[in-house]
Design a protein that fits this description.
Elements lengths: L6 E6 L10 E6 L17 E5 L4 H8 L4 E2 L8 E3 L4 E4 L8 H9 L2 E5 L3 H13 L8 H12 L3 E8 L2 E11 L2 E9 L4 H15 L4 E3 L5 H4 L4 E3 L1 H14 L3
Parallel strand pairs: 2-3, 10-11
Antiparallel strand pairs: 1-2, 3-5, 4-5, 6-11, 6-12, 7-8, 8-9, 9-10
Helix pairs in contact: 3-4
Amino acid sequence: MNGKYPDVFDDFSTDNPNGVNNMPVYRLEEDNIYFPLPELAEPDGLLAVGGDLSVERLILAYSNGIFPWYSKEDPILWWCPKERFIIRPKDIHVSHSLNKFMRKHDTEVVFDRDFADTIHRCRMRWENESGTWITDEMEEAYCKLHDSGYALSVESFVYGRLAGGLYGVILGKCFFGESMFSYSENGSKIALVKLAELLADNDFLMIDCQFHTAHLESMGGVKISYSEYCGLLEQGLTLSLY
């Protein structure tokens, strides 16, 4: 990693929904962009606290399998889970019912219609249900990441009405999914299917889902080891150089 080795920040406590309590983590400085080795993450994946959400730090984070996830009451928390959950774009699973829905309804998918709008809709979806990690700071940071060419939004429409969407980060031949929303039946699923098809056509290796959900498993998500994940990540970043 870049920069000097970070300090250990002992006895960090938080009410973050991930259940982190009283464990030592690495403290980052805002004026020095670095991370500790991802292998030093706690068993639940927590690696570091602090730093900032600059474009440069976010790119360094995602290129090493690290991502920010925290509540608005907490400092920035950085995660690198040992077990990863991904979808290989070419293996996206389209159920019979979803395939039938797309055949029988007038559907359309648009890429980068309005990134800022999409991330805000994702935020509102979670904020209205169980609270959200998409703070004002996160919205601003990912919009800057998008403006720099490293993030993408996908929106689906059914009969001309916005049905759902998602956004994520793009580095090399890897897509890192962040969040999604759905206003109607199959809204976010349609967006994900069409995204996977586009990524497969462009030889992308994975959609990093970060954590397992039954919804994503039903669409082709699989658990892989951290070593296999690192191999895909390295390959995906290398392929972008050619």
